[in-house]
Amino acid sequence: MSTTASDHPATSPAHEREAAGPRSSGRRATRIGQGILIVLSAMCAVIGASTMFVDDPFEPTATTMIASFGMLAGAFGIGAALAAPRSLLARLSLCALPVFFAWHVVALGTWVPDAVLGAVSVVGVVLVVVGSRGGAAPVS
What we know:
single chain, mainly alpha, 5 helices, 0% strand, elongated, membrane, transmembrane helix, SPW repeat-containing protein, transmembrane
C-alpha cells in the first residue's frame, strides 16, 4: 500500500500552515502592506507627472517642480516599501505618506480622495510594521 504526502499528517497542508505560525502570517501582512504602499506611491508619481500635461493654474516652473517632486516621492515611496522589512529607517519613512495625505486634508480640505487614501496608507504602514516584527503586535 502506497501513501502520498497528503496522507501523512506531518506533511499535510494544514500541518504546514500550523508549523509556519505567526512568522508566515507576518510575512503575508508585510507583503500586503508593501503592495498597498507601492500602488499608492505609484499613484502619487503618476498624479505628479500628470501636472506637466494638463492646464494648471501654476506657473510653468512650479508645475515642473510639482511633477518632479511627485515622481521623486513616488520612487522613494516604492523604495521604502520594498526595504521596510529590513530597515527601521525605511519603516519610519513610510509615515510620510499618511502625513502627506493628512496635510492635504488640512490645507486643502480635500476629504475625498485624500482622507480615503490617507486611511488606506495608514493600513499599509501598519501591516508592514506589524508584519516585519514577525506577527501580531503585542497587547499591552
